[in-house]
Specification:
This protein is mainly alpha-helical. It has six helices and no strands.
């Protein structure tokens, strides 16, 4: 049908309007369907984000537990090293293994940057300067006791310990 003129009859106007209302109905139906799909997609997105955040939080808690477990093991092994008479070389390797595990988990924990640097520095000192470290393990044990008691001064003590190591000597 062609365009309606200004002086169209009533029948022509009804036919023209009827044709447009059918198209309008179809478009309204499609728009309502699109809006419903968009709302459902947004709800699914919000649920997905919430599940992701919850799982991420659980994983971070696991990392923190493993980090504390490695520090506890390191603390116990330092005590065993200090009280031991036998194979000190083997016991020192156990200490390096323990601090390595703690160092690995420290880097997996979010918002833990300063502590990561401190533990990584301690790991480096244990690895590169064993003679100096062996002599002062009681200081490290004291700092680890503070860290395990959730006191920040333990990290400060470890930083002081790292700074006091003669980096040019063995």
């Amino acid at each position: 049908m062609s365009k309606i003129k200004k002086k169209a009859t009533a029948d022509q106007l009804v036919n023209y309007t009827y044709r447009d209302s059918g198209q309008e109905y179809i478009m309204k139906k499609k728009m309502i369907r699109a809006i419903i799909l968009m709302i459902l997609s947004l709800i699914a997105l919000v649920v997905f984000i919430a599940l992701y955040l919850a799982e991420s939080y659980k994983i971070q808690e696991t990392y923190r537990k493993q980090y504390k477990k490695h520090l506890t093991t390191l603390n116990n092994d330092i005590e065993n090293y200090l009280n031991a008479d036998g194979d000190l070389e083997f016991r020192y390797r156990l200490l390096i293994s323990d601090i390595s595990g703690a160092n690995s988990f420290a880097f997996l924990i979010n918002d833990f940057v300063d502590e990561q640097k401190t533990i990584n520095g301690l790991f480096t000192v244990f690895l590169k300067y064993p003679e100096q470290t062996r002599e002062r393990l009681s200081e490290v044990k004291e700092a680890l006791d503070d860290i395990l008691a959730n006191l920040d001064k333990g990290y400060d003590k470890i930083d002081e310990f790292i700074e006091s190591i003669n980096l040019k000597g063995y």
